[in-house]
Amino acid sequence: MRPVFVQIRCTPGKTYEVADAIYDREVVSELYSTSGEYDLMAKVYVPEDQDVGRYLAENLFDITDINRTLTTMTFKAF
């Protein structure tokens, strides 16, 4: 499994609904509310045999009221 961090910007006033929808899909291992440009940060473990972009698009990015995302890939830990 490959850990990926996804920052999510939601439609104003819809952050809790988006967070609930994300949890309902059981795709993220951790989900945080954040300050700044994005509203949520999710840690997602993507299976090694899956394309990261396709996996996130099919399992996360089609949720209503997600307006923008920023995905940070991870590499080998030190």
Automatic annotation (TrEMBL):
InterPro entries named in the record: Dimeric_a/b-barrel, Tscrpt_reg_AsnC/Lrp_C
Secretion signal span: none
Record-linked Pfam families: AsnC_trans_reg
Gene3D superfamilies in the cross-refs: 3.30.70.920
SUPFAM superfamilies on file: Dimeric alpha+beta barrel
Transcription regulator AsnC/Lrp ligand binding domain ranges (all copies): 6-76
Protein name: Lrp/AsnC ligand binding domain-containing protein
Originating organism: Paracoccus cavernae
